[in-house]
Amino acid sequence: MSTAVAVVLLLAVVAYAIFGGADFGAGFWDLTSGGAEKGEHPRDMIEHSIGPVWEANHVWLIFIFVVLWTSFPEAYASITLTLFVPLTIAALGIVLRGASFAFRKAVVTTNQRRIFGAAFAASSVLVPYCMGAIAGGIASGRVPAGGQAGDPVHSWINPTSILGGVLAVAAVAYLAAVYLVWDARRLDNIAMVEYFRRRAVIAAAVVGVIGIIGIFVLSADAPYLFGGLTSRALPLVIFGALCGVAALVLLVRHAPRGARLIAVVAVASTILGWGVAQWPYILPESLTFSAAAAPAGTLGTVLVVVVLAALIVVPGFVLLFVLDQKGLLPEEGVDEEPAVDPPTV
Fold first, then answer.
1. DSSP assignments along 87-156, one per residue
2. Domains of the chain
3. Is the pTM of this model over 0.70?
């Protein structure tokens, strides 16, 4: 039963990376789009794309924490006690990001919009970096078992965590650019299609370079994970790499529909490969999923709740995304007003 719950947990991580990750990636492109005048059209495209769905995507993160805490309490205690610094930074970043995104639409002065826009964009980069660093700390075996606290600094500032953080930022930027290409095409905004297509190609190349560098980093710093990636998880790694190359080719050939789906599969395969490579450990190489699992009654209840959630919540998500793609959702925020500066005295 612990295996079933572990699979659910991994699939939730994949879902959060695909949906929530794209939101963070959009913030990266907001950060790099330039000044107020130069970045006006890309930012409008980003707001239009993520506005209706960005709040819903964090449901996956809450689900991950609840399942981890309920089903694998010992691992949850060790992870939160050891990695409380990046977890706290990520939590504050999520709050700051959401508040800034909402308030940026409500203010009318240029300076205020710049402040909230900078907070939104910076936190959109900081949060995925911290998430990747947390994953790197866990995967490299720097979180001890037994509900004990490990080193609060080196557990997330180390070669594998740095690799994980940088890779996470690049991957979500890549996903967001691919999604934005599709949305711009759906809205017949040819200029933005080309704008984000170029950035998607660059981001794909950066992800590939980071992946190659990661081979050397993991072989030296996370040998158990590296061994799993080069053995039992190798088919997923190869499949993910092939999907990434295929998505790059489609982007170059101006085929965003196929590129979007294949890019999602590439990211999902990479995360699934991490899970398979780390198996059977939740904390390599000190605590397995079966040893960390809660009593069978608790696990059974969790699985029942997961099934009920799939029947009740998932259809709502599907409807939300369908309505969004068809342009049937109302715009968020107040009526648009031109940004103005306060009068000088």
1. HHHHHHHHHHHHHHHHHHHH--BHHHHHHHHHHHHHHHHHHHHHHHHHHHHHHTT-S-STT----TTTTT
2. 2-303+317-325 (1.20.1630)
3. yes
* pLDDT tens by residue, 139-148: 999 999 988 8
Q: Which two tokens stand for residue 75?
A: 């691992």
Q: Is the dihedral of CA 224, 230, 232, 237 positive or negative?
A: positive
For the segment 175-184, what is each residue's pLDDT rounded down to a tens digit? Answer: 988 888 888 8
81 token code pair? 């006690």
> Which amino acid is residue 304, in one-letter code?
V
Distance CA 93, CA 169 (A): 14
Burial of 314 (0-12, 13-18, 19+ CB in 10 A): exposed
Cα–Cα distance measured from residue 230 to residue 213, given in angstroms and rounded to the nearest whole number: 15
Q: What is the DSSP letter of 334?
A: S
Provide the 3-class DSSP secondary structure of residue 314: helix
